[in-house]
Amino acid sequence: MKVTLGNFIEGIEKGADTIFMAGGVGPCRFGYYGQIQRIIIEDLGYDVNFVIIDFPRYGWKNLFSSLKTMMGGKWSIPRISRAVTLAWNVLRFVEDLEKNSRSIRWKLKDPNQLDILVENCLKEIKKVESVAQLEEIKEKTFQDISRLDTIEKNNPIKIGIVGEVYIAQEFRVNFDIEKLLGNMGILVDNSVSTVEYILNFLPFTRSWEKEEAWKLAKPFLKRFVGGEGIDTVGSTIRYAQQGFDGVIHLYPFTCMPEVVAKSVVTGVGREYNIPVLHLAVDEHAGEAGMITRVEAFIDVLEMRRKQNVQVTPCF
Amino acid sequence: MKVGIPRGLLFYRFYSLWTTYLKELGVDIVISPPTNKLIIQHGLTYGIEEICFPVKVFLGHCYYLKDKVDLLFIPRVVSFSKNEYNCPKILGLPDVVRNLFHLPQERIIDDEINMRDRGIIGWRQGFIEIGKRFTSNIRKINNALQIAEEAHLQYRKKIAEGYFPDNLIDNRPVLANHPEKILLLGHNYLIDDNYINMNILDKINNIGYSVVTSDMVDKKKIRNALKKIPKPSFWTISNEILGTTLHYIQERDSTIKGFIHLVSFECGPDSLVGELIERWLKREKHSIPYLRLEIDEHTGEAGLITRLEAFVDMMKWRTETFESNLSSSCSSECSSGSSLSNIRR
C-alpha cells in the first residue's frame, strides 16, 4: 500500500489530476486501500479526483460513474473496448516475454544481453498504438532472444516462486529475485501472473494450472482465504510434485492471506519434503540481507542434491 | 465424546451460543482456562512469527486442549453478517491449527458458517452440519439450535447492558459505575481477555472512568452511522469499530471523555481502520482525545500504565481548558480542524 501511495504522489507531482485505484470486497485488505489512500491524499492537501473502481456488489452505478470519470466525462463504448483490448494484449505480451527470458536465462553465456533486449522491447511497447504493431515487436524480440548464445548445461537447480501477486511480480520491490536467481544459473518458475490474477475475477477463465493448484491445496487449506493464499499453498504442492528443488515464498510483511498460507505451507513442506524459503518484504528489507538469505538457501538445495538426504529444513 | 472449545478469538462473542448448542446436543464440553502465561508460551512456540498476537494466544489454548479432548471446536466463521467477511486469519484458522499441530482432519470441527451470501440460511446450515456430527436426529438439532440462539440473544443483551463476558462466564464482580466514560474500541478478543489486555478494564475503572465498548452501542445506530461514509469496510468487527466511532463523533455524548483503541500488532484490518479513525478525529474542530494502544507478546504492563495515566492527564487538562473557555487552538490536535462535513464526503 505504501508503494502504491508513493506512486500516486509521484504521479500527482508530475501533474496528474485523476487517480485510479481498484477496490474489492475482501477479505484481503487490498479492497480497502483505496479508501484509506484517498483520505491520506486529501489530508496531504492534494486536490485530485480519486476514482475507485469497485465490484458490482456495491452497485453498478458506482462502477459506471467511475468509468465515466476515467473517460473525461464522455461515454464511448468503442473507446473503452479498444483501450481494454490493447491493454490486455500488452499485458499478455509482457508476461510472455518474462516467461521466455525466465526459461532461458539460466543457460545464457551473458545474461546482460538479455537484459538489453528486454529493455529495448519494453521501450518500444510504450509507443505501440495497435495490436498489429504489438505482434510485430513480439515476433522480433522472441527471435532475438532465441538467437542468444547459450552454454551447455544440464539439470539446473529448479526453484519455484509463489506468493502475493504484487510482490512476486514487481521486480523493483522484490529485488529482482528472478534475475538474481537466473544469473546464478538456476531455472526459475513463477507461479504468479497478473493475467491469471485478472482472469480469476471472471467466471470459467481460470487456467488448468490454477484449477489444479486449488484442488491440490484442498487437503491443507479448505477454503479461499483472500488474496493468493490458496494459490500459494497449491502451487507449492505442484512444484513439489514436479520435482522442483525448492520454493521461495514472497509476500509483503503482515499480509493476512499469505500469513495464513505460510502457516499452512509448514505442513506442506513436512508432507512433501520440499524446502520453502519465506521472504517477507517491507520498507526495511535490505537488498544485501535478502541476497545472503537466497544464497544460503541455494547452498542448502545444492547440498541436498549431493547428499540426497531426506531432511526437512525448517525456516 | 469430549469437545474442547479454545477460549480465544470469537469465543467471547459466541460463548453462550456455542456452549448451549453443544450442551443441548448432549456433548461433553471442555473450555480451556482463562489465558495465562503458559498458554501464551505454547502459542508463541507453535505460531509462526508474523501471525497476530490473538491468534498465537488461540494456538496456546488449542495446545492446552489438544491432548485432553477428542475433538476441537474451531468452526470456520467466514462471516456473521451479510455481505461482510471476517479477517482471513479467522477464515483459515482450522487449517492453521491443523497444520501447525499436525492434527488429523477428523479431530477438528471446522464446518463453515457463512452468512455472507445467503444470510441466516448459511448460518443455520453451518450449525446443522456441526450438529450432524453428533446426532442424526434433525429435530433434536433444530431444537438445540433454537435454544442456543435464544441464549445467544440473551447473552448479547446482557453485554449491551454493560456487562462484560468476564462477569457472565467467570462470575467476576461487576465494576463500579462512574459518570465519566471512556470509549474503548477494539476487537472482542482483546477487550474481553483480561490477561492479554493486562486488565485494562480494571485499570481504567480505578482511575475513575467507566468503559463503553462498541458492543454496548445499538446496532442500528452503528449501521446508520456507517451509511455516511462512501464505503464501509468488509470486516464485521472492524465495521462495528468504525460505526461506533462515527456515531460518537456525530452524537457528541458529553460524558465520553476520550477514545482508546486497543489494537494487536499486525492486525490487518485495524491497521487500516485505526488510521481512518485517527484522521477523522484530527479533522474535527474540537477533537476528542484518542489513544491507540498496540498490544503484542512483548508489551510490558508498566508501559501500558504510564501511557494510560498520561492519556488521562491529558483528558483532564483538556476538559479544564475547554470548560474555562480558553483559546481552543492550544492543542495540536485541533489546529487542523474542519467541520464534520468532511467525513461525509
Describe the structure.
The complex is a heterodimer of chains A (315) and B (345). Chain A has helices spanning 2-13, 30-43, 60-70, 77-105, 111-127, 131-146, 165-169, 177-183, 194-199, 208-217, 229-241, 256-272, 287-307, and strands spanning 18-22, 49-53, 157-163, 186-190, 246-252, 276-281. By secondary structure, chain A is an alpha/beta fold. In chain A, β1 (18-22), α2 (30-43) and β2 form a beta-alpha-beta unit. The mean pLDDT of chain A is 71. By secondary structure, chain B is of the alpha/beta class. Helix content of chain B is 50%, strand content 13%. Chain B is built from 15 helices and 10 strands. A 4-stranded parallel sheet of chain B has the order 2-1-3-5, with helices on both faces. Chain B has a 4-stranded parallel sheet with strand order 8-7-9-10, with helices on both faces. In chain B, α2 (37-46) packs across α3, α11 (219-226) packs across α12 and α12 (236-251) runs parallel beside α13 (268-283). The chains are: A alpha/beta (315), B alpha/beta (345).
Summarize the entry for a quick read.
Chain A has helices at residues 2-13, 30-43, 60-70, 77-105, 111-127, 131-146, 165-169, 177-183, 194-199, 208-217, 229-241, 256-272, 287-307, and strands spanning 18-22, 49-53, 157-163, 186-190, 246-252, 276-281. With 315 residues, chain A is an alpha/beta fold.
Supply database-style keywords:
heterodimer, A: 315 residues, alpha/beta, 4-stranded parallel sheet, 13 helices, 6 strands, globular, B: 345 residues, 10 strands, 50% helix, 13% strand
Radius of gyration of chain B: 21 Å
Low-confidence stretches of chain B: 325-345
Oligomer: heterodimer
| Topology, number of strands of chain A | 6
Helix content, binned percent of chain A: 55-70%
Largest interface: A-B, 44 and 40 residues
Mean of residue pLDDT values of chain A = 71
SSE class of chain B: alpha/beta
Kindly name the structural category of chain A. alpha/beta
Topology as H/E string of chain A?
HEHEHHHHEHHEHHHEHEH
| Number of helices in the DSSP assignment of chain B | 15
Q: Spatial order of the strands in the main sheet of chain A?
A: 4-3-5-6
The percentage helix of chain B is: 40-55%
Q: What is the beta-strand fraction of chain B?
A: 5-15%
Strand content of chain A: 5-15%
Distance between the first and last residues' Cα of chain B: 55 Å
Integer-rounded radius of gyration of chain A: 21 Å
SSE arrangement of chain B, N to C: EHEHHEEHHEEHHHEHHEHHEHEHH
Mean pLDDT across all residues of chain B, rounded?
82
Main sheet overview of chain B: 4 strands, parallel
Low-pLDDT residue spans of chain A: none
